[in-house]
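PROTEIN ENTRY
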Amino acid sequence: MQIKLGINTGFAINRFTSPQEWIPLVGEVFGIRTVQFTADLLNPSLPDAIIDSQIQTINELAERYGVEIDYTFTSAFTRVNHLAHPDPDLRQYWQEWFCRFADISARLGAEAMGSHLAILTVRDYNDPRLRTERLAEVIDGWKKIAEYASGKGLKYLTWEPMSVPREMGHTIKEARKLQLLLNEDIAIPMKLCLDVDHGDVESSNPADTDPYAWIKAFAPDIAVIHLKQTCEDKGGHWPFTNEYNKKGKVTPKKLVNAIEESGVSDVTLLLELSFKEREPFESRVVDDIKASVEYWQPFLSV
């Protein structure tokens, strides 16, 4: 098996926006070769000419700096209702948006595109009839997206279980139910992007906030894992620095052991780090990411 380290480009949003900034950072400063590219750096709703120009620049610089965009994903600004929006016209818009994102993903050389599954509004979640209708629409919508993405050459899609019920997949039980529904008669597989900081803290099952339990529960379906330092009561997205590692619960040896023992095949661990837009966090972004890479590299095969 192979466990490699990559990075989600959420750290770059509005900080290192242009490819001329974030790609050298990833390839030279951080020494990372694998990227999960976020839609907030190149939103599919932008005009064709801008998208074409950006894709050409990204691909040229990625080759120059030895960076591979293996995955794409939604991010902070695109963390919205999507296929569970109450308005049918907006649901259709987001379905088309994801198809356009599949186009971009394929042109960047990615093997997979992903997102959270969908987000219900409070009203829709609290109404059993609407909740059922929305879920059916979400499942159907993703299967249509999968069919389109398959035609573009993507190998699979990924979805991320979240932490509250209306954002879907908040417990191991709920995520397993959704995983089964999604993969019934789908054009390409829907795999999991697990997050070590997710899971419902209100759940009566301690396993639901245990990243190691999630790995063991979903081993065959895991494609990538979002890494950040976190603690028992959540609220992480911290870097792996001495300050946070002292109180954090995520350790490389324990996570790698869980992966190896669970029978996961090849998996990519993606640093998904968030930094507050205030000091001293703002000035430490690059150094904290470098420290996080150095913390994890000795435990990985690539």
